[in-house]
Design brief:
- The chain has 593 residues and is of the alpha+beta class.
- The protein has helices spanning 59-64, 122-127, 129-132, 136-158, 199-207, 246-264, 281-288, 314-319, 338-350, 373-390, 405-422, 464-468, 499-508, 513-526, 541-548, 579-584, and strands spanning 20-33, 36-42, 47-52, 70-79, 94-105, 162-163, 180-183, 191-194, 212-220, 233-242, 269-270, 277-280, 302-303, 326-332, 357-364, 367-371, 397-403, 430-431, 433-440, 442-444, 451-453, 476-484, 487-494, 534-540.
- Strand 7 and strand 8 (191-194) form a beta hairpin.
- The longest helix is centred in the first third of the chain and has 23 residues, at 136-158.
- The chain is globular.
Length: 593
């Protein structure tokens, strides 16, 4: 017999009754029923109930084991009494009577309990991550992650892509976040960088004549943490293709993403890719207040400025006298009560705004009546025009925010989400996808008036050089994101592969040709030697798994994540280098105190 096991803790069935077996695993739970000891023995695959009574030659040894001890047992498989069968586990029809036991690894007192669903502070969970990972939900999350990555790889190979690896140590290349720098021992005073993404390398692969590339790529960015973003590193499905249009990229990646969500989405509805909405960046901002809208929520905001110009509501009327302002309405079907309206007004105040105006419609003496301070100020004709535009009726409400869109759009988007959740309008049994397109390439700083890149500077401008010779703020790029249930899953672009166009785009943003060559010399030089039109995208593995696992925090689906302060409490990173290490690198540290 094998030194440690003849079967896993998920293998044994009723057909094994009478056999002598060997199992190894962890003591999940111990129960003493009138002198008979029942032990739930757990391994990666499942749980088997093993038991021992005073007639067993090792009864005294079994009495000593505690939770999370790692043990090996030999014993005989027996059938459970019919009324004691546990249908919730694969081995629920049998149990194993212990004849011999060996302690493979005793456990000290546990800082967190593996059995059950007890909540522990995140600091404790991350410090003892190896124990936290033993819990069933974490085991399932990590298996899901591995299975998703394996399925993605199969899917990409099936459609003609090959996986190529790009460097982990490279030159610093601004991608919109801070680099992690690595000092060079051989080149004093110089630094490598960990890649924020394989962006330049995958474009160079296209220049090298490899028509299709993909990689499950690690990316490193020194970012402030959020619930849906790691502060140090993440993984993405990175791909690039030559001789493609924007629609070609959509047609390639959409079925891969759809198949993943169909396979691992737990039966939730996944629309076919040809039915995914395509929404302009501008429309997404107006309708949803974000470029990653949750389309499970049917609420669509609208511009209602025309109904408030020169109206009796002075606040909104005065706002509209300034350039670049508007009044936006958030419809709230079923939200037509003063109590709900007051609650949403309080929400806006907590978000830093003075409040939200509102109108709600109710029945009065058999007639439809508009209620609320706004309705009284603007009068029945304007109120009725608003109701008609928004398609609302008795029992519904609408909320209003005004100003320049940048001042209220974020809160409007959050309010839309809250309204949808509270009024139970969100279809939680669905993964709703939408391509967001037509991103502006440039933006203008309101204080300095300087033009800079708003989005990916390597995107091909729509209209080419002619567009770049016009108003920079009107230039749109062939750039696109895929949103799902309020998260950005995919981001990509058709690349600007023509040096003259690249130099012109950077010139508009205040970067001369010398600066561009200094920062991106490898790619710019390559583009002078017959670069093909190309484009691609990257899909966030962590966010995909987070949605599939129905988790709200990305650390729940990463095996060894950092905490909110970008610290590894388990391994003690970041740590101070030794004096010898600093001397070898010709570095010294300076205290900020």
């Amino acid at each position: 017999m094998h030194d440690y096991r003849s079967h896993t803790c998920a293998d044994l069935k009723i057909e094994d009754v009478g056999n002598n077996v060997r199992l190894s695993g962890w003591v999940h739970r111990i129960r003493d029923h009138g002198g008979v000891l029942f032990v739930d023995l757990r391994d990666h695959y499942g749980v088997t109930q093993v038991l021992c009574d005073p007639d067993s030659p090792v009864f005294s040894q079994v009495e000593n084991v505690r939770s999370e001890w790692c043990i090996r047992i030999d014993g005989e498989v027996k059938a459970r009494d019919p009324d004691l069968i546990n249908s919730k586990i694969s081995t629920g029809a049998i149990e194993v009577f212990i004849r011999d036991i060996e302690v493979l690894g005793a456990s000290a007192e546990l800082p967190l309990i593996v059995f059950g669903d007890q909540e522990y502070p995140e600091e404790t969970r991350l410090r003892y991550r190896y124990l936290d990972l033993r819990r069933e939900v974490m085991q399932q999350n990590m298996k899901l992650r591995a299975d998703v990555i394996a399925s993605i790889r199969r899917g990409m190979w099936d459609i003609g892509f090959r996986e190529y690896q790009t460097p982990i140590i490279t030159a610093s290349s601004p991608e919109g976040a801070r680099d992690f720098l690595v000092p060079s021992r051989l080149h004093e005073g110089k630094f490598y960088a960990l890649p924020q993404a394989p962006q330049q390398f995958k474009q160079l692969i296209m220049v090298s004549g490899f028509d299709k590339y993909f990689q499950i790529a690690p990316c490193f960015r020194d970012e402030d943490p959020r619930a849906d973003r790691s502060p140090t590193d993440f993984y993405q499905l990175d791909l690039e293709m030559s001789f493609v249009t924007q629609q070609d990229v959509f047609n390639t990646i959409s079925p891969v993403i759809a198949d993943i969500f169909k396979e691992f989405g737990g039966g939730k509805v996944v629309d076919e890719p040809e039915n995914w909405e395509v929404i302009s960046y501008r429309d997404a901002a107006v309708w949803y207040g974000t470029d990653k809208p949750d389309l499970r929520n049917p609420i669509k905001m609208q511009d209602v400025s025309q109904h408030f110009r020169n109206s009796g509501f002075a606040i909104f009327s005065n706002i509209l006298e300034k350039d670049g302002t508007e009044i936006r309405a958030i419809p709230a079907p079923g939200g037509g009560s003063r109590k709900f309206c007051d609650r949403m007004n309080s929400f806006a105040q907590k978000e830093g705004l003075p409040g939200m105006g509102y109108i709600f419609w109710r029945e009065s003496d058999g007639n439809l009546e508009a209620a609320g301070p706004l309705a009284k100020n603007i009068g029945p004709e304007r109120t009725e025009a608003i109701r008609d535009q928004l398609g609302l009726g008795i029992g519904d409400a609408a909320f209003f925010l005004g100003g320049t869109p940048k001042t209220f759009e974020r809160v409007a988007g959050k309010a839309r989400d809250v309204i949808g959740d509270e009024l139970k309008l969100v279809d939680t049994n669905r993964f709703a996808f939408a391509w967001i397109v037509d991103f502006p390439i440039f933006e203008k700083d309101d204080e300095t008036g300087k033009i800079d890149f708003e989005h990916n500077p390597f995107s091909m401008p729509q209209g080419g050089l002619d567009a770049l010779n016009g108003d920079p703020l009107s230039v749109l790029g062939y750039q696109y994101d895929l949103a799902c249930n309020g998260s950005e899953l995919v981001s990509g672009a058709i690349r600007n592969h023509q040096p003259e166009l690249m130099f012109k785009a950077f010139e508009i943003a205040g970067y001369g040709e010398d600066e561009v060559r200094k920062r991106f010399g490898g790619m710019v030089n390559a583009f002078q030697f017959g670069a093909p039109p190309h484009g691609g995208c990257a899909a966030g593995i962590d966010r995909i798994v987070m949605l599939l696992a129905d988790q709200e925090n990305i650390r729940e689906i990463i095996m060894f994540p950092m905490n909110q302060r970008a610290e590894d409490l388990m391994m003690g990173a970041p740590s101070e280098p030794t004096s010898d290490q600093l001397m070898e690198l010709n570095l010294r540290t300076i205290s900020s105190s």
